[in-house]
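Q: Please design a sequence for this.
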């Protein structure tokens, strides 16, 4: 129990090793300093079970396995805090939930958009205008097919032309509905 050999050089006591390990919290390797002042990294066991040899090192030496990982400048900049100096993110106050009064004060859609339909008559009028625009597009498409500008119409274009009757019926239904208002 008295002595621990270090590479056939000077001997130190095991008690000194335990004191060094406990005082530093034992992070990294175990450094052993001989009575002559030489520093050694003690033999240690790797994760796979093999043993590293004890080796003599200079003061301040950090083994390759324990070197901090290289970070580029971009990584260093992204790892920096974006908070002002002395301010921590724990001090951030979370916003309170909206109260019922604030939710009631929300403006209506008509106030947000000046041309939004307010009355049912205006809403139906907008639908009729939209359907009339679709009818004009269908008429233009039919003229292009008849004149030969559009030789082979696509499937979607033919489907658009086939919907002409349903669009005209919808326009008639909406005009009757608008007259009732």
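A: Design:
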């Amino acid at each position: 129990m008295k002595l621990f050999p270090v590479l056939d050089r000077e001997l130190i006591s095991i008690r000194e090793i335990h004191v060094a390990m406990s005082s530093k919290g034992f992070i990294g390797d175990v450094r052993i300093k001989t009575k002559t002042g030489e520093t050694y990294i003690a033999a240690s066991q790797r994760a796979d079970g093999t043993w590293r040899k004890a080796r003599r090192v200079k003061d301040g030496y950090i083994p390759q396995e324990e070197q901090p990982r290289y970070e580029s400048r971009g990584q260093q900049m992204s790892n920096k805090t974006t908070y002002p100096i002395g301010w921590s993110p724990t001090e951030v106050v979370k916003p309170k939930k909206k109260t019922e009064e604030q939710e009631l004060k929300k403006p209506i859609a008509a106030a947000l958009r000046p041309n939004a339909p307010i009355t049912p008559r205006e809403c139906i009028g907008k639908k009729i205008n939209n359907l009339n625009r679709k009818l004009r597009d269908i008429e233009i498409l039919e003229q292009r097919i008849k004149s030969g500008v559009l030789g082979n119409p696509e499937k979607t274009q033919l489907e658009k032309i086939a919907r002409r009757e349903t669009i005209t019926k919808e326009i008639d239904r909406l005009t009757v509905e608008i007259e009732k208002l």
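Q: Thanks. Anything notable?
A: Helices lie at 14-23, 73-79, 100-104, 109-112, 120-147, 155-162, 164-180. The mean pLDDT is 77.
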